[in-house]
Fold each of these.
Amino acid sequence: MNSILKRIIESNHIVISSNIENIAGASALYTHIIRLHKKVSLVCKEKDCNREFNKKYAFLPWFDKIRQTIPTSADYIIELDNSCVSLYNFFQKSSMKINSKMATALYAGLLKESEGFSNNIVNGIIFAMAKELIECGAEYEKCNKFMLNTTTLSFLRLKSKMLNEMLLENEAKAAIFFIGSDTLKATGAKLKDCNEVLKESLKLPTVEIAALLDVENKNEVIKLICKET
């Protein structure tokens, strides 16, 4: 990351290119580069990204600055794939002051990466990070509302259909789901939306593994997840 800082200082127009999964961290980095009085653009090239942003990510700082094409004047492009945890650690080690906009973006990313402080990355360090971000001005109530309590109609339709067709096998230790292009088209959902349904099935007390099968390709396994121990 130190080499990135050097390139930022030397460049005239920086682009932060991110996918939807890392957009919160991109927002935090964008804020820092703005403070350096540098020209910077925030780009998310994923198809249909605006549809997803409007439902869940519109509260993020600089949301209105997101574009889908990289400007031709850019002389340095940062392909951001770092977690918000690692980005936070980088800011701390570099003695960068985290302002309220950066704190809000990083807290939102932390919520996403920890699945609402519920998965196996959560430990005392993560809670200390959350506390520090709140003290830096993170709008944590707004983050909770959008990141944890906002969904889409297409996802609810997909979830209903998948759960209705779910099979429990091997003494209810395995939850089996099926997906095809017809289902995705009918619900308006994306294939990656299925991941949340699989994770939810692991909350059943007997289920230890969840599998997503492709009905159009001889029930080939698309996704397989196991309950954390």
Amino acid sequence: MRKLVLASLVVATSLAGCASVRDSRANPFNWFGQSQSVAVAPAESDVNTLIPERRAFFGKRDAPPYPGGLVEQVTEMHVRQLAGGALVEVTGVLTSIEGYDVRLLPLEDADPATLSYEFRAIQPRYGAGVGPARARTVTAAIRLTDQELAGVRTIRVVAQGNIRTAAR
């Protein structure tokens, strides 16, 4: 019993001395001090630093400009609703059966309620492979997200001979 009373007396005395150790350098919790908040000037550009400027691992150079010309005519255009956006599918007729690499390239439009695209394909300069319209028919599509479609009322596709539009 005496040992128990003596041990509890030693523990109580040592705990009372902890108040002086709390603020000393011997306490590991005091080694780095308190954290402080410092105001930072806002960044001047709207560049997201988490998105890399180059996408390739070894610093791939920028692609050369697309050499394709306008497709002769847009024959069909469908806007299909998808989860999270829409799919714009465009069918057209080339000037030659030797055309390839068909693309829908965005155009800058003055009206923010209109999305404009050029329907382009790489085609030979001279119409060497002229054939029936069925053989010269090509299709291209582009997926648009809900964010890209916000506020858009009209989608417009420009070809060499005509313009097709789809409105909401």
Amino acid sequence: MLEARVVALATELDPTVEIVTIDPDLADTAAFCEAYGYSLEESCNCIVVQAKTGEAAYAACLVQATRRLDLNRHSRLIVGARKASFASAEATVEVTGMVPGGVTPIGLPTDLPLFVDEPIMELDRVVVGGGGRGTKLRLSPTVLGDLPNVTVAAISR
């Protein structure tokens, strides 16, 4: 049901979105790219991070598969804490309603901060999760800038 809601929202945001139905066992980015012929450069990972110090705080971060989230350098920006870490699979599901391998910036809770890495916005198309492990979305990155609670910033290395 979540995947259908994400696909509907993605279609509303970008009528040219490509919906790619995949084998859920191939949802992790490297396996997906190899099996379905998409490049790592256009594929993005949506990662949930959490504060390790202070009050509980979470954020979603979108980075290209060819880059690494620079969490140590940007933890204050991302979660407002001195230290941050990657959220566990259980926390990711609790915060987003989505399972790892399917987490997408499309359809996240509107109160969850979303950080999109600047280089993503320069691509023609990006591949993101579809809300579950059985779907990927290929769409224009311009729609990412219109999502709720989004900040475009240099957050990778």
Amino acid sequence: MPRVVVGVLSTVLVALLLPLPSIPAAAIVLAAGVDGESAPGQRNPARRGPEVSVIRTTGSLPADVVVQAANVVGVTAVAEVDTETVRLMDTSAGVGWASGFGVAFDLYGVDPATYADVVPAAGALDQLGDGEVVLSATAARQRGIGPGDWIALHDGRRLAVVGTIAAGLIDGAGGVVTRGTLQGRTRYALVAHGVSDGVPAALDAIVAPIPRTLVRTVGAAPWSIGWRTVASLTALEDALGPLPYRPAAGRSIVLGQAVDVVDAEVPILGRVRCHAAIIEPLRQALGAIEQDGLADLVDPTDYAGCHSPRLIAAGGPISRHAFGIAVDLNASTNGFGVAPTMDLRIVEHFSAAGFVWGGDWPVPDGMHFEWHPDA
């Protein structure tokens, strides 16, 4: 039977005391730069591993789903991934943000040994312990830190940086911690299997009775977009710069620096207020829709906006609308959580212009088109 970790997340975390513990000499270093590169003497993170299908949910994945997936004929390993979006407040190198401001930062919690069964090049995570973090190479570069440094989170936790890993091996997350370090939920199960077997169909049958849970086959790591259907926060920071913020009342947030938002004219919708980076892709998508005689499928009076400094939900992670990179179209007939009515020809044109569509998400958001720098 493949190795499976079915852990119970700790609900109480003890803050790390200062000074930080010394970093062991055998600090983890995997990937000195971008995806596919490895540090001298390290295993190559681009080495092809098994095919991977991802079971993803919006709640917390039931433990029995993982057990059932592990028993499917052809499955060689299953790894659970917990997720938590935190605010990164400071690092040992300093951040330069005003007091109380931080940037959204995705952490993945894994059992290192089991994760390495699914992503063989991630075997160096074996040394990762509670209260420590292995940063993605992208996040380490953005912060100017590495092994021996630390990051401080909004809830007072301070994590010792003990290494780096290629971002494509963790699907663009900012860093990896042990499952016991996180306060998040088990969002994913990564299922390793052969290329030509019937595993994905069997997994579909397992999750069919579970609301808001989907299976997607993403192939072998490293992943550029992987199972994510939105741009990672580290990818957005590379493309657009950091967006420090602090929560305000309800879903509102206060931004710590100006976003490059502009007012511009685009086909069909007329005047919009979005991040400058998406104006031309938005014109491309809407212009193609217009040229194909499909303009009547987009109602300009039912456009629900672009830039909006807010959280997805009160107390939740930051909305991509805060960056000004998402537009909501035909809002009244494509509400959150209901079956989308968006014409798929509209989806095709937006996809060609570099947008992902919320109608494909486990909880559909059919009005939502979001620019992805890697799409």
